[in-house]
Amino acid sequence: MPEHSQPPLKKPFEGIRVADFAWVGVGPLVSKYLADHGAEVIRIESSTYPETLRRAGPFVDDVPDLDGSGYFANFNSSKLGVTINFKHPRGPDLVRRLLAHCDVVTESYTPGTMARFGFDYESVRQIRPDVIMISMPLYGQTGPWAHYAGYGHVLQAAAGFNHFTGWEDGPPIGTGVAYTDFLVPHFAAIALIAALDYRRRTGQGQYIDFSQFEAAIHGLWTAILDWTVNGHEQTRLGNHDLEAAPHNAYRCRDGRWVVIACETEKHWEGLKAALGRPEWCDMERMRRRWQRINEQKEIDRHLTFWFEDFTRLPSEAALQVEEGVEGPPVRKYTTEEVVQLFQSFGVPCGIVQSPEEMHADPQLAHRHHYWKLEHPRMGLRTYDSPAFKLSKTPAELTRPAPLLGEHNEYVFKEIVGLSDEEFVELMTEGVFE
Question: Which residues cross the membrane (predicted)?
Fold first, then answer.
């Protein structure tokens, strides 16, 4: 090694081994943070009761396959995968032997499930005294709702998000995805990392009773404060906003949509200039921001007309000039040109991107957000990386999501220490199912 070269830095969680019993969304994303930053995370599953996310699409060629779910794959890259039949008489003992080698245990079952298996925190720390265990059910381990099971769509309703999603004159409709699944893991990961730091300093493990419900509430912004301080109940506004006008999405002639959010007088002045200062912008009821907040429907009507009339399809002529209009010629714009025009006047706006456009987004490409990994069943696919980059020890997606039981032999022979004979015996008896 040349004198000026430095050895590679140790990854933040290198040397940490995680037994990952968690499933679906929140739990697997928490352990993925550790896996992408050096931890050896072992997904513990069973083919007798497959993980729910393995049964969720999209699937390759739309053919359901427990090893072909893109949803599962994106949440479980960088991990190893084993299968153990908990109901087999020899299954629990094999789990105990594995847990003896693990620093962290993650699970997201309904409270009491791990205890029925014999792996509640008190039992696990008899196996590994300094273990850190985090339980991540919907509502925590205690309370009148603790025994309720469900997924993110249930949680976002219980946590109040659906109250704010929908149109003013319509019912709560929720979000298109389980929104809380992409908010809650950040809180759980922070709690787990804090416990790891505590163990590093003291040598002591601990139990983390984590409530997805309580973490989700932090995403409600000022809604709860507005109620407790002002007695004001915020509600559904569609695409509108309490502090900005216009604040909406507008359809261009090519079928694409542009979003605009004018929160300040400077934004509004820029929008007027970009539009060519039409008369309606200078009406008395449009002169102040608080007035425009009450005129959002009127603003939307004018902007909807503008976007329909002043945008063009790619197949149309490059420039269409309207004659007889004083001042600069009026032209029609492509969707991209509309955004460039508005942004040049300081108007906050952007194009609503499709999945295909997101995949080819130049900003994400520049940041190397997507990783390409070769999956045994799905082939070469892209995976999301963490949204942050550590300058000295950046994340690394080391392997695609595991097939069911893909790493049984490595984990149980190399880590647990089974002999070849014992491994074959357990396999023959159906313990690895």
Answer: none
**Which are the contacts of 422, defined by CB distance < 8 A and separation ≥ 6?**
none
Give yes or no for a contact between 18 and 405, defined as CB atoms under 8 angstroms apart.
no
CB count within 10 Å of CB 430 equals: 14
Is there a contact between 44 and 101 (Cβ–Cβ < 8 Å)? no
Q: Where does 89-146 have alpha helices with state H?
A: 91-99, 113-117, 121-127
R_g over Cα of the chain: 27
What's the gap between Cα 58 and its chain centre?
A: 16
Given its phi and psi angles, is residue 238 left (phi above 0), alpha (psi -120 to 50 degrees) or beta?
left
Comparing C-alpha atoms, which of 50, 55, 52 is closest to residue 69? 55
The tens digit of pLDDT for each residue in 170-225 reads 999 888 889 999 999 999 999 999 999 999 999 999 999 999 999 999 998 789 99
Kindly compute the dihedral angle of the four CA atoms of residues 154, 156, 161, 162, in this order, to the nearest 10 degrees.
Answer: -30
- How far, in Å, CA of 374 to CA of 380, rounded? 4
In terms of residues, how long is the chain? 433
Cα–Cα distance measured from residue 135 to residue 60, given in angstroms and rounded to the nearest whole number: 32
pLDDT digits (tens, 9 = 90+) for 80-106: 999 999 999 999 999 999 999 999 999
DSSP state of 330: B
Q: Is 299 exposed, middle or buried (0-12, 13-18, 19+ CB in 10 A)?
A: buried
pLDDT tens-place string over residues 101-139: 999 999 999 999 999 999 999 999 999 999 999 999 999
Domains of the chain plus CATH, in order, are 17-220+362-429 (3.40.50.10540), 246-352 (3.30.1540.10)
Pick from 152, 159, 160, 210: nearest CA to 181 = 152
- Which tokens belong to 52? 């729910």
Q: If you average pLDDT over every residue of the chain, what do you get?
A: 92
Predicted confidence (pLDDT) at residue 70 exceeds the cutoff of 90? yes
For 363, the enclosing helix (H) or strand (E) is helix 362-366
Residue in the block written with tokens 């709860």: 224
What tokens does 365 get? Answer: 């490409």
pLDDT beyond 70 at 254: yes
Using N-to-C axis directions, what is the helix angle for 184-202 and 26-36, rounded to 10°? 50
Angle at 242 between CA 240 and CA 246, to 5 degrees: 45
CA 153 and chain centroid, separation: 14
Q: Taking phi first (over 0 means left), then psi (-120 to 50 degrees means alpha), and beta for anything else, what does residue 134 get?
A: beta
At residue 312, the pLDDT reads 86
